[in-house]
Here is the input.
Amino acid sequence: MNTITKVYADHPKTLLFSSAAALRILLVLAFPALPDLLTGRVEISSPVSSFTRLQEGLFLYQRGLDPYDGGIFHQSPTILGRLPTILLYTALDILSASNLCHIAASGAAYASRSYTSPRHHRHWNPVSVAAAYLLNPLTLLTCLGRPTSVFAIFFVILSVREACRARSVTSAFALALASYVSLHPVLLLPPVGLLCYDRVCLPATEAAGRGGDGETKGKKVAIDQRSQPSGLGFGLIYLATFVFSVAFLFVLSRLLLPSWNFIPSVYLTPLTLPDLTPNPGLWWYFFIEMFDAFRNFFLGVFWLHMLSYSVPFCLRLQKQPLAAVVCMMGIIAIFEPYANIGEVGFWLSSITLLSHTFELASTHRYTFAALAALLYTVMLGPVFHHLWLYAGSGNANFFYAITLVWALALIILLTDTVYSVLRDEWESERPEGKGKEVRQL
Amino acid sequence: MAELEKPAVKPSTAEDPSRKDQASPPPESPAATWTRRCIIIAFWSVVICLGLPHWIWTTSIHRSDLPLETMNSWADGKAHRFQYPLSIRIDTTEKDHESRAALVADLTKKFQQSSDLPLYDINISPGHYSEGFLPEQEKDADLVVYVDNESKSPQQASLRPWAPVLDVQPGHAGPSAASEFIFHEIVRAYADEQRSLSHLMSDSPFVSDKGIALTADQKTKLDARTTRAFKYASMYHLTFSLFSASATPSAWDIDVAMQQYLSPLLRQLSNVSRFTVDTQVQLHAAFSPSIAGPQFDQASGKWHLQKTDLSGFVNAAEWPLNPSIGAGPTINFVLYVPTKDQSPLEIAETGGTSWLIPQWGGVQIYNPSNKQDSALSADDLEAVMLTFADQLTALVGLPPSPPSLTLRLASMTRERTTSLILSASSTLGALSRLTLKLTSIAIPNSVAKSVDETIARLEQACLDLREGRYNNALANARIANDEAEKAFFEPSMVGQVYFPDEHKVAVYVPLLGPVAVPLVMAAVKELLSLRRRKVKST
Here is the structure.
């Protein structure tokens, strides 16, 4: 017993990672039918990430056919090497968790070049953040269901981690990989770029802060602007790296495949939503009901809605760029066309990166109600889906109502996060307002 | 969303004067104001730069320009007046040029003065009589009149069945009586066709004052003819089926019978439409369960089929009669051979054995004579094939008179052309009214193209009609009609027909309304505060 405690105290990461990996592998060994059962669930597998469709595409590819000809396979071409095993998915999860751990340890959540949270001492232990990801039941189910969205999640986390390490080129390349695997991470380009820029400027700022007298500490410090890279120039370089990486990946894919067919098949599918299989998102029911003449217009409206948050989050949360990234991830997880619980699980876990603000959300907001609603929908969603499609005693509205509640709970969580982050920032400006009721004017 | 959130101290209650200073929120820092403005601009720039073009691009309705005036002029019957030129050649055995010219002049005068054939432009020319009639001579004239002055037989006239030739023997009458006789014979040859043509035009805007009044009886007859016939097509499929109620006969000499009795007719008809022929034999063909079946009549010793059973006689469920083979309609001909114990079988009221099913085909019952062969020979089939040929002429819409097949074919060509032009014109009119009435429907380019093609083909068809090229006119009119129907039934147009503009409110408001409220309110609030600040500073 003592040794276990000692091992835990000395190597908490090793213990966490090994137990999480063991949990995944043991579940598969104990219930061999579980992965296939989960693969068939609409909550986990979407038409653009399903493991069964990947098998179909791989089958066609290995026989020298264009995998995109059948109209079933919509996943990016480089996954076509060989069929990923559950071990690979476990490894991806562990690596993602390790990256999350690094992000949490970097302190990007509570300290930026122009701002340090008054609550920075309240942040969670990085291992706890990793545990929140690895032991999250939604992540666990997604890992066993093997959708390819796990790759996109991994590359997004990798990109954020590289941004926290102020490595702009690798960060942009990882984000390009994520966008190449599934389209929507491209919306993260502004916040991740901002985060990266902030981390690049941070050492100079800290140096200036340290170099000053004791009086200037904690106050605004005049920083020599010339010692820092210009925002515009950095942004252009970051964008150019991203564009070149994507172009490089496209050319690479073209070399693997007989035609350019993969571009419309992979990237037009989330844009035009040809497959209206029910999922936990908000799109499918709306576009089943929509008049054909307005379909294209509302597809545009839904995408522009997602897109429109990207820049405003960066503007408002420019002092806390990691918070902007997390909020944008939430927007994507809630409003993406082929929503799945994998993205939601990843977002819920990454909220723990902002753990220093949790006390604000839990005292002033509706976090408990939202979490209760999430639990309730997690239970009722599969039940209503079964009632509608298999038992035949319900209809589409049953399942859609649950997905609405699910989305509502997630939106409440998102607004709570935004609130607590902003309140935290405001309290650093006005310490006298701490603990008081506030309202928006 | 929370992007506009600017927390401020909650103003305390007004009754507490000691905290009055805190009641008004502290002023915003300029940086915060600018951030807020930038955020509002960011949202609005997405709306204006991306949303607005997207809205215009995806919801604008593409309306190609249609030549509405031309379409309406066709629909109103102003674009064309039906007039059918007929060239008639008078060939006489008379050697004397003058008397021949006198006969031609006399006939021309008679046609100009009379109002018996108002729809036709008759042009009479003299020609040389030659005993051997060459096929190419047929092409110079729509009708050739052979006047045999030397014949001593009494006054008589007859049409040759396979050529557009009217043989006239004026007998001993004088030249004026002869020309009177010829005139009446020509009028008689075209009277039925003219009646049918003016019946076609009577309900359309193309109706001319020259049209002739029809009696109710004639109208019913013409209507019956129209309902019986198939719609005109450039290709018909003929299916000849032998259905035996028992195991015999199990074969028929249909190839030879076709060659002998039907091919001459098909060769003539193939000027107008093409035909493919299929045959089949089906043994042990059972009656349809929906009919009562034949009854034995003790008095005559025959089996009788009730008239009410005739419509259900064809067992559509079990007899392999294809509804269509490729493009073009299928005309079915069914020969039914009853079992030995049910023979002879005939229709109760009339004693007949054949009947015609409008726009479907013909049915015949063949009661074999005593010798029960396993095969029907070509000779056995003679009567059968002649009845089928008769039914075929009715089904493709060949008029029953005059007796010359060539003239009947020419008649049919003119009638079909006329009805196709009428139908294409009225379709154009309907399309033009539709596009004017429903201003919100899309008009794809394909519709405009079809309409242009229709009008071009209609003009060409009318030109052909005026110049007497009736076969070309028919081909053009058919294409015109097909194109007009294609334009009218364009599926992308029909989908939007019942979508009035006011329904768009119900489409846009539920989602865009709630989204627009915070956007608009934030923009208005910001603009107002900007103005207030400006006023303050000046």
Remarks:
- Residues 84-202 of chain B form a domain with the Collagenase (Catalytic Domain) fold (CATH 3.40.390.10).
